[in-house]
Amino acid sequence: MRDKPLILLIDDEQSLVESLTVLLRGEGYEVISELTGAAGVKAFKEHGPDLVLSDVRMPKMSGIEVLDEIRRTNPNAPVVLMTAQASLQSAIQAVNLGATHYVQKPFENDELLAVLGRSLDWGRLKQENAGLKRELKKQQTLKAGRPIGVSPMFESAIKLVESVADSDSTILIGGESGTGKEVFARYIHDLSSRSNRRFLSLNCGALPEGLLESELFGHVKGSFTGAVRDKEGLFVAASTGTFFLDEVGEMAPSTQVKLLRVLQQREVIPVGATEAIPVDVRLIAATNRELERDIEEGRFRRDLYYRLNVISLDLPPLKNREEDIELLAEHFLAAQAEGDPRGAKKLSAKALAVLKEYHWPGNVRELENVIERAVVLTAGATIKPEALPSRLRETPPEPLVQDRPAANPALDIIERAYIEHVLRAEAGNKTRAAEVLGIDPSTLYRKIKRYDLEA
User: Fold this and answer.
1) Are residues 305 and 334 both part of a single domain?
2) Number of domains within the chain
3) Domain span at 11
4) Do residue 125 and residue 261 come from a single domain?
5) What is the per-residue pLDDT across 127-185, written as a single tens digit (0 to 9) for each?
6) For residue 325, what is the domain's CATH number?
7) Which end of the chain is more exposed for a tag (fewer CB within 10 A), N or C?
């Protein structure tokens, strides 16, 4: 907490900056100042001021662009814009972008101070409200059984799950390995009308073909060597409940045919048997494979795919869920603390920053393993970066082109990749990106539209 509110002053007029600095400091404010919009945005990110007071008309980067950048960093920061060229259009633009107030030069000192006071009060209320909302959201995500996360892509998956959970429709969950497909499957079961029945699961890639069929459909005594008694299959065992089939894309073609019959006829025939057994089970399947490609290459049946993919749920990788990393880490830390006589541990700010910078190829499962390792290696109460695996602390730089390039890529492919690289390096600031690229902003806007780079 600061003793005095910190105001960031941005204006290209040196004399005005000096006079306002004297005024504001005399009124009990701390002041930092910059003469350009780009420097002001950088100072905002470094110092996190309580309020920004910025001129609108500045060379290279206007106050409107400054406001836009600040809103991307902190939507709740109060921003007051001032200009000698006040107009209804610019005022509306500023308000739409989230400016707290808009004042016209020249202004009376008392007028400006009153505006700043109201803006700071507004900012405090917004911050308190946002904090309460975050805490409420955090408590909601930590409810037993609910997958943990608050990122937009994750919330979208949760909303879909909650809207279809009470139906009996088959669901196909896609996503990279370690994204939590079984966690979602269990959550679907817990929300469904079958929640008081059994939830069974099986990884299709963990068993050879013959044993997988026996586990799924059961077998009768003497049907093969080693079948010394009848065995009930998991489809029958899960009847009236939910059956989760993980890595369904690893299933052999002959087993795919039998699974298709179960979905079509709602009955199973145990290995070696001649009579079918009716089953009432809600099936949830999951895969980390691209089944559409497997279909084209003849490795997966198209008719089975359509039977499984009645409702499609794609889970985002952890690298696209930066907002969720801290929540998940806290959850795993709490789980590790149970029964540990050393007590609970917490992450240092630097260790958390390392976690957020890492690309997480193993997703949530990898994060859980990393937290467990860090807890074991940390003697004190705070986990520092040194307790994290070296691969996290030595993250390789992101390649300019993500996909495997063609042997002789076309010029427009190279241009698109370079423009995207510069936009990322400049945090999406189109004005600065145009300067780096050496082109007019209008030209950059046309190329962004052409290459569909708005996101």
Assistant:
1) no
2) 4
3) 6-136
4) no
5) 888 777 756 654 554 455 689 998 999 999 999 998 999 899 999 999 999 999 999 99
6) 1.10.8.60
7) N
In a domain, 42, yes or no: yes
* Same domain for 48 and 183: no
Counting Cβ atoms within 10 Å, is residue 193 exposed (0-12), middle (13-18) or buried (19+)?
exposed
Read off the pLDDT of residues 105-116 as tens digits, 9 standing for 90 and up: 888 899 899 999
* Tokens representing residue 193 in the block: 């009308």
